[in-house]
Specification:
Helices cover 20% and strands 41% of the residues. The protein contains one helix and four strands. The protein is of the alpha+beta class. It has a single domain (3-73), classed as Nuclear Transport Factor 2, Chain: A. The protein starts with a helix and ends in an 8-residue tail after the last strand. Strands 1-2-3-4 form a four-stranded antiparallel β-sheet.
């Protein structure tokens, strides 16, 4: 199994499920921002080219063979000095 491809596929499917159907289907890409492997587990942070402020956290549990998806909305980005 290619975990990178599977992670992008999971997020792409999630986005398509949650698009407003009245807006049609925009063209977009999903990309990996960060990933890490610890023992048999993978953690991914992904985003898309849509201007919706969303990002996605995926965790693959290698013992159970299951994925967990968390979807987040970015509300603000501040520089604090």
């Amino acid at each position: 199994m290619n975990y990178d491809e599977r992670a992008i596929e999971i997020v792409t499917d999630y986005i398509r499920e949650h698009l407003d159907k009245s807006d049609g289907y925009p063209t977009f890409e999903v990309y990996t921002v960060w990933k890490s492997k610890v023992l048999q587990n993978w953690k991914y942070l992904l985003s898309s080219t849509l201007f919706d402020g969303m990002y996605y956290e995926l965790t693959y549990n290698g013992d159970a063979g299951v994925w967990y998806l968390d979807a987040y909305k970015k509300f603000e980005n501040r520089v604090i000095k």
